[in-house]
Amino acid sequence: MKIRLDNVVKSFDTFRAVHDVSLDIDSGELVALLGPSGSGKTTILRMVAGLEYADAGHIYFGDLDATDIPVRDRGVGFVFQHYALFPHMTVAENIAFGMKVSKVKRSSAEIEKRVSDLLGLVRLDGLGSRFPGQISGGQRQRVALARALAVDPKVLLLDEPFGALDANVRRDLRRWLRSIHEELGITTLFVTHDKEEAMDLADRLVILNEGRIVQQGTTEAICRAPSSAFVMNFLGDANRLPVAVSAGAVDFDGVRIPAVGVPDGRAELFLLPGDLVWRPTGPGVPASVVRVVDRIQARRVVALSQGGQVLEFDAPPETAIQAGDRGHVEIRNAKVFAA
After folding, report:
1. In this predicted model, what pLDDT tens digit does every residue of 233-280 receive, in sequence order?
2. Which of 121, 167, 264, 338 has the fewest Cβ atoms nearer than 10 Å?
3. Considering the entire predicted model, what is its pTM?
4. Are 267 and 338 in contact (CB under 8 A)?
């Protein structure tokens, strides 16, 4: 089922949460809405679900204008961050609930078989008789997804579904959800503020800021060609340095960096830690090491450039480097945006 948002607007009292958002989601595509708190991503998801109504614009499911269709008639499955399971019902009863209250009537045998199939799909065979309080958080989230899938939704909507779980469980569930999506092929809209989560899961990223789409595309396209200082800063722990552009370039401590299309004057230089390489004898920006922080697969180095700018970069774990060392930081990639 293809989804199209056409100049959608949503306001709450004194502020506008969504500004003229237009977005096409292809049938079977998994799209992540990504942005900081207050960027409008959850409001967009709730409008697609029918939990909020747009003040202007239209929402289409295929060729059908679904803008004013009630939530129960939209054919969407919704998975919330905090599961929203009925604690007094068993796992099987939670999964079956939507089918029992649906306008589409099913026999008890059909419902029982569907529940059994879904328990297998979400890898919870044998747990149907347990209650939500008797299973783990990751298992509860799988039950929530099975319940959303039980009514054969045309569209699956996920609102920070792994936000309440610890990092290891989130990582495992991301891989599992991606495999489920590839198996079922349901058009899926996924809301998160977790960049790693979005990049792991989505076919396409839609980055929002203050209720507007600021960039969209594949993970590769956005990471290789961020369109603005906001996107660059949001995507990672970039070094963000004040510079001046002159004649289409920046002079950073003796290293000339192209600034194509950026007008002369104040600007910001963005350097991702992975794009900087430590060289004991050059080439690069002369620098001295201030601190080394060991991590599982790398060493995070904090250095001070000759001109007094702080640079953070990653070095391989076997790199012999310590506070006080002098050398050079080679810049392999850089982005310059007007300030």
Report:
1. 888 789 999 999 999 999 999 999 999 999 999 999 999 998 999 999
2. 167
3. 0.87
4. yes
